[in-house]
Every structure is written in C-alpha cells, then in structure tokens.
Amino acid sequence: MGETSPVEFFDDFNGESDHWNYRTDNCASISQEKSILRLCSGPTEALYYSNAELSDGLFDDLPWVEKTFEAKLRMTGIHYGSAGWGFWNHTMQFDKNMCMWFIHLQSRGPYMLQGFFSQVGKHLYPIKVYRGNIALLSYASRLTLGKLGVLIHSAKPSFQTLDLTEWHVYKVEWRKTGVNFHIDGNLVARLPPPAQGTRARADIWIDNAVFGYNPRDAGRVYRHLTQENRNTTCIEVDYVKIY
Amino acid sequence: MNLQINHSVVPIVKIYVLRLSREAYLDLYNHISEKYPLEACGILLGKIENGIAVVTRILPLRNIKESRTEFWIDEKEWIGKILEAQKQGLEYIGLYHSHPDAEPLPSPSDRHRMLECPGEVWLIVGYSPSSLTMAAYRVGDDGYSLLSISTQVAHE
Question: Which residue among B1, B12, B82 places its CB closest to the CB of A139?
Fold first, then answer.
C-alpha cells in the first residue's frame, strides 16, 4: 500500500461551493440535488457546441501540480461527443495541450477514436472500445510519427466490460515519473508524465463534440467536431477529491 | 462501494525479459546472416506473461532502405503480418533489426522511432560473420528514456 497524501480539496456536493467555475454552452445545464451534481448536455443539433463543465482554474491560474484527482461518478448514457474527468491545463493548442484524464469519445462518422480512454497529452491508452479496430489504429499511430496526432500505447483495451452508466471511483494519479489511472482500485492505464512545470486544473465536462486534429490547422488547436444528440445525457458526480 | 480487484481488467504489463525460443533464434540468425552486409529487420511474435516476452516466431520484413546503416519497413507489410499472426494467437512483441559490423546500440534514428513505439520491445543484433551480440530495449515509464532489458535464448 502506498502512502496517502493529505486531502487538499473535497466536495461531496452537499452544499454550495465557491471553489468551482461552472460553464454551460448551448442546451446544457448544471444542477445539484441530494448531494449529487448533474452536468447535462443536449438534446442538440450538430450546428452548436453544447457543453456543461466544472473546473477550478483558468488559463494562467491553474492550481494543481502532481496531485491525485479522484471522483465517484456515472454517466446516464453513452452519447455522441465527449465526456471526461481529471486534470487539464486549459489549452487546446497542439504544442501546449496537457490533459491527464479519462475521456469518452463517440462520433457518428468515421472517427478513429470510438471508446473510453485514458489520455496524457498525445498519449492514449484504450480502456473500452465501442467499435473499430483499436489494434490496427494503435500500430498505425506508432508508425506515422505523430501524423495522427495521437500515440495509442496498447492494442488491447484494459477494461472492456466497464459500464460507464454504473457508479465507479475514478482516480488519476499524476506523479513526476508517470500518470496512473485507476477504476475502483484497479490499475487500467499508465502513461508518461507531462513536461515538468505543467500546472493544471481539475475538470469534469460533457459535450457534443469529439476533438479533431489537422496538422495544417491555422489556429494550431484541436477543433470541435460537433455531433447531433436527440436526448439529454448527464454525468452525475457524487464527490471530487484532490490530494 | 467496495473497491476490489476486477478480473476482467487486463493487467498493465511491463516487459523486463526478452526470451527467444531456440527455433526463433535460429530463424533470426539465418535471416540476419543471409542479408549481411545489409541491415535486416522483422517482427517478434509470441506471448507476454508476467513481464517476460517469449518470442516463438520471427517474421522477416523487407528493409525498404536496403542499406548497411539504416532500415525501415513497408508499413502495409508490417501491419498485414501482425494482424495475420494475431489470428494464429501470436502477440506482437516488437521489431528486430541488425547492425552489420557494429554494436547493438540504438542509433539516433532507432531512438527516435522507439520512442514512438511504447509497449514494444526492440531487439538490435550486432552481427559480423565472426560474432553476434544482441540487446533489447523498451521505452521507460517516463516516455523519453530507453531501458535495456535482459535477453535470453532458450536451450531447447
């Protein structure tokens, strides 16, 4: 058993907190009831970006370095778009983006990442695959020297039977030597650490977009590829802990 | 909620030993000596268990550089052979290539390529008609270091 660090932040959503930034974009909502926080997106057509997001930092005001993010949560459905939780340094720029999170990705079209992953920057580890050949994609990502924008570390998903609509405890352990991802105490991925000096915020979001990568993008950012959802999908959060 | 071991979780395994079966070693030797003085390259296949990668089969690939000092592969050939081997129950372990008349140390381009291949083992074989030395490497957890791992050849 490893040493447990002191808890630096804990919220069980039992009352109001001024710790968080709450963001909603188009057909999205955030509510709190009976000690559960609900972040919801949709229904929405694909013309608009719909997003509900909880975070505790902005571009140059990022509170956390080498901490553990822990949350107990579930999704109410598997929608088109993305959802995720963990740490992020709040930039979508190719060269600066540093996320350390669990991420659900599903798209209606021929999108290569259709599943649930752990991610640190360009490094991804598949946890559950919804469709497609992750083995082929994993091998291809290694050969193309970054042209796909991602590097998929394993040809095998680590927890294919995971049910995202059930309650689980998710943990992102950000350490100097690497980032470990746990679900209900099971190690499901290990990825290289971000660059030294990285700072990040805690972040939980649900939206109707998957990220797109075009190396010739004028803004040098990952773009939102928005999706149509005909229902509302939510993330229900029991608690968040940082230590 | 009880946090407990879920047996459907695939363990995250790091490879610490590369063990070649006798047959795989002889096939490797034959391929490399046949291609000498050019660099030879190919795929390592077998099974990974408890941190040991056991190579039971090698599959030669064409070195599209046809060079004494560098190699690269035909990507379609590489993927096609891996997927075919998977159907036969063989796991992809990594790549091998030879360094004719040189030590089995990663060159700058080897290192660059290896860092794009986390989870794989790269076996480098230093070969001349009078000697053969092997060294195997994988990417460290930090994502930018290369770790040398133990290489063994089975007697049987």
Answer: B82
pLDDT by residue (tens digit) across A18-68?
999 999 999 999 999 999 999 999 999 999 999 999 999 999 999 999 999
Asked if residue B4 belongs to a domain, the reply is: no
Distance CA A50, CA A39 (A): 11
Contacts of B144 in chain A (CB under 8 A): 192
| A12 near B CB under 8 A | no
Distance CA B136, CA B146 (A): 10
Q: What is the DSSP string of A192-236?
A: PPPPTT--BEEEEEEESEEEE--TT-TT-BPEEEE--BSS-EEEE
Domain that holds residue B95: 17-153
ipTM for the predicted complex? 0.80
Q: Cis peptide before B37, with omega less than 30 degrees from 0?
A: yes
Q: Which residue has the tokens 């009831």?
A: A33
Query: pLDDT by residue (tens digit) across B22-72?
Result: 999 999 999 999 999 999 999 999 999 889 999 999 999 999 999 999 999
Residue B103 forms part of a structural domain: yes
The answer to the question of residue B7 being in a domain is: no
Q: Which 132-161 residues of chain A touch chain B by CB within 8 A?
A: 135-136, 139-140, 142-143, 145-146, 151, 153-161
Whether B70 is catalytic? no
The CA distance from A35 to the nearest CA of chain B, in Å, is 16
- Model confidence pLDDT, tens digit, residues A127-147: 999 998 888 889 888 877 667
Q: What is the pLDDT of residue B145?
A: 93
Give chain B's domain count: 1
The answer to whether residue B143 sits within a structural domain is yes
Domains of chain A in sequence order: 9-242 (2.60.120.200)
- Going from the C-alpha of A161 to that of each of A103, A237, B8, the distances in angstroms are 16, 21, 7
- Asked if A188 and B12 come within 8 Å (Cβ–Cβ), the reply is yes
With CA atoms as reference, the chain A residue closest to B118 would be A153
Q: Is the peptide bond before A63 cis (omega within 30 degrees of 0)?
A: no
* pTM for the structure as a whole: 0.90
- State the pLDDT at residue B1: 57
Contact across the interface for B5 and A185, Cβ inside 8 Å: yes
CATH of the domain at B58: 3.40.140.10
Closest CA–CA distance from residue B13 to any residue of chain A (Å): 10
Q: Is the pLDDT of residue A162 over 90?
A: yes
